[in-house]
Amino acid sequence: MTRLSRKLGVEEKGQRTARSTDVYLSKDGMEVSYCTKCGVIYRQKRWIMDPIELNQLKEDPSVGTIVCPACQKMQDNVPGGFLTLSGEYLRKHEEEILELIKNTEAKSRNKNPLGRIMEITQEGDLLTIHTTLDKLAEKLGKEIYKAHSGELNHQWSHGENFVRVNWKRD
Q: 33 has which bridge partners?
């Protein structure tokens, strides 16, 4: 291992690293199950949303039930990311921006049903959105930036799946 790679914390070539360090994600390869709270289905190490299959699974007594990682994070109030929006522009375009956020989350959930908005709070001129996944907070920030420009900053927490995204436009 070179001095630089050791300093940056990079593993030696050929070493496998864990795909995710999120403690809420299942490590075992359990059979088909569904979340009792939101209805997402776990099959072949993937989470999917399929209402038709969910109805079939609910009728089968041999199918397992679980609480998915997103519902667990929401229950424990452990967000994967924060998106903070601020500025004079936000006040004037708040409804439009919130609609963009809602649409972006809906599209994102088609790809990964574990990415959800946990909570949206407003304190004065600050609008804060808590998400279950870091990637969703990042995606929301990028979409707002693409549509409305402004300033966009990311602060990643090293060693954890957590991000703070800040967007501002005056």
A: 42, 64
* Core vs surface per residue 32-65: b (16+ CB within 10 A) or e: ebbbeebbbbbeeeebebeeeebeebeeeeeeee
Q: How many CB atoms lie within 10 A of CB 149?
A: 11
Domain ranges in the chain are 19-74, 79-168
Q: Does domain 79-168 have CATH number 3.30.70?
A: yes
Token readout for 25 is 């994600």
pTM: 0.81
What is the Rg, in whole angstroms, of the alpha carbon atoms belonging to the chain?
A: 19
Instruction: Tell me, rounded to whole angstroms, the distance of Cα 56 from its chain centroid.
Output: 28
* Model pLDDT for residues 41-54, shown as the tens digit of each residue: 999 889 999 999 99
